[in-house]
Amino acid sequence: MKPQGFELAWITVSDIKKGIKFYTEVLGLKLEEHHEQYGWAELSGPRGARLGIAQYDPNFGFKPGSNAIPTFTVDDLEEALAELKQKNANLIGEIVEVPGEVKMQTITDSDGNTFQLCQLLKK
Prior knowledge:
8-stranded mixed β-sheet; 2 helices; 8 strands; 44% strand
């Protein structure tokens, strides 16, 4: 597996509209994307990785106030996961796909720290 980059870390919020307002009006980030139907937004500064904010969903498992989830981009998620499974990585749940946008898989390291691998579907 060869990550292509570190492009995103994300957090959950109890109210995505308030979260967007805080990160744009208070922190000064620029709103790049907002997908209301998925409870998702991405913000950025003038350079560097994006910050994703997700509307809290109790079925998804990450509570507001938790640490950010680092996300590493890969070219082929299934290929990367096959390699990680051979190395006994701890995959959490199944692949989640937002059609036409992204496929992602949550994983924990040996200390229980959570991160994700994602494959961007839009070019």
